[in-house]
């Protein structure tokens, strides 16, 4: 095995969570959609997301305390790139990305119909880290496409073809395949 030593971009070595689109509401009711890949599960019901402070997503979360998290799969991969663009604040990415909204049950921002899994979330707390803020949210409701429920009730990311950004900012994504059980 030949390994390269690096001191930058270290967390990219453990990048293995599907890309998400975070949906929030602007005060004028514009439905905002932003793409995020730098996040992690911090408890059974809480997720921490590194969100750029200038983003509309961050400002809307701070104003309203509510968001939805929507998993991106291969059939809607282009939506990840479109929702990653910096559109004017009063322009929704949803239509441009050819997505549709459905009402959430517990929060005001809608969920994305075409996503195989959606979470309804509320703001808990944040830690500022330079350009980003690490925003911790509590998930209070979820929606998952029945065909893609894994044995443990979670999302079968392989079957659902959930996409992972493996070259950001280049638009290069991958899906997982060939899961295997380790025998000891
Ligand atoms: C695949 C992908 C992953 C991204 N991940 C993040 C991320 O984790 N954190 C972040 O601040 N921006 C991330 N971005 C950039 C945001 O999507 C971008 O700043 C977007 O304009 C935010 O939208 P908003 O201003 O409507 O909130 C990502 C973009 C792409 C395409």
From TrEMBL:
Requisite cofactors: FMN
SUPFAM superfamilies: FMN-binding split barrel (SSF50475)
Gene Ontology molecular function terms on file: FMN binding; oxidoreductase activity, acting on the CH-NH group of donors, NAD or NADP as acceptor
Family under the similarity heading: Belongs to the flavoredoxin family.
Pfam families: Flavin_Reduct
Domain Flavin reductase like positions: 13-150
InterPro entries hit by this protein: Flavin_Rdtase-like_dom, Split_barrel_FMN-bd
Alphabetical UniProt keywords: Flavoprotein, FMN
Protein name: Flavin reductase like domain protein
